[in-house]
Fold this sequence. Notes:
Blueprint: H1 11-36, H2 47-51, H3 59-66, E1 70-77, E2 80-91, E3 96-99, E4 105-106, E5 111-112, E6 115-120, E7 125-134, E8 139-143, E9 169-174, E10 182-196, E11 204-212, E12 224-226, E13 232-238, E14 249-254, H4 255-268, E15 275-277, E16 280-284, H5 287-293, E17 301-306, H6 308-312, E18 320-324, E19 327-331, E20 334-338, E21 341-342, H7 346-353, E22 362-368, E23 371-377, E24 380-382
Antiparallel strand pairs: 1-2, 1-6, 2-3, 3-8, 4-5, 6-7, 7-8, 9-10, 9-12, 10-11, 11-14, 12-13, 13-14, 15-24, 16-17, 17-20, 18-19, 20-21, 20-22, 22-23
Amino acid sequence: MTRTRSLPISLPVFIVLAAVVAIAVFGLTRWTLQSDANTLPPLDVAGDSAAAAPGALNAAKLYEQRVRTVVAISSAMGNSSPITGTGVVVDAEQGLIVTASHVIKDYKSGTLASSITVKFKQGDQVRAQRVAIDQNNDLAILKINPAEIEGGLVAAPIGDSNAVITGAEVAAIGGPFNYEFSMQPGTVSYVHRAVESRINNAWDIPDTIQVDGAGINKGSSGGPLFNARGEVIGIMQQIPTTNGDSAGLSFAVASSIVKRALDYWAETGKTNISYAYTGMTAKSVTPQLDKQAQLGTTVGAVLQTSQGAAQAAGLRGGTRQVNSIAGSVLLGDVIVELAGQKIRSNEDLARVAGLLIPGRAVDVSYVRAGERHDATLTPTEAQLF
């Protein structure tokens, strides 16, 4: 057996090396603490499955640990009554707050707030500036000066909405009927629900979390939806209603879309956050449709039309029509994967396409005449306003 003999290290050299290591470790630790210190850690719930277990949500602890990240918003609208709502701090270092865009803009008149005031539960009250609006998904990014907050500013961690499980206990913090900083526990009743936008005609918000119990009323819009780990998994946005009052069912814009808005603004600095136009319209594939039309796959999104970016990628819309139990369907290419995510339905296609960045190429896989093909799709930039 061959042995390697270590060379002796003199005491001065050892002291110098130890000092270098100590400085490096201290510097790295200090940088890590500085970069993470203002974002609160997740609560002690081990994983998303555990967060969905009955009794996982400790509402009192969550409220105690997260209410400092929540703000009540009042937007001055000229001679009209102010619009009230809620927001959540997502970046303490920059002073970034996310809320619903209809909290700072009157879409009936098209008027933006002339001034925005945010108030914290501990008493701080400061002016906020609008930095970006994602009108497509009814989100807005505000900015305040962290130095103005007594005791320092802290941010809530943003969670992964794709990991949310139906049946999970959640809680919203908002201001129903302007009763500010109120907690409303609820249960996730559906994930990845596309809902019709209340501010954009013929546009669906492609990814929301449907919640029973944590209803939205005047003053609650824009508030955070927390999972049991205390992570923001959505921004409370709208309710289905016939008289304006909550019926106990609400929708939160998924945190995946919130992250997209924040990343898009950080990368481009644009005040209007645009969405990616793919040029695809589709319908969901079912096993029955595959059996009838011999598509070669029982899941996916069968293209009805292909324009713009989709057409440039070589994707084909429908040229042959069949009448299925779900109605008339044009038979084009079937999208089965986009940007690395499986596409099992038209809802999946809309959700994934809604997260794409204009000008950024992604891979797309499709089935044509029973054979799978791959292509590259580069969505173009489009806006709804």
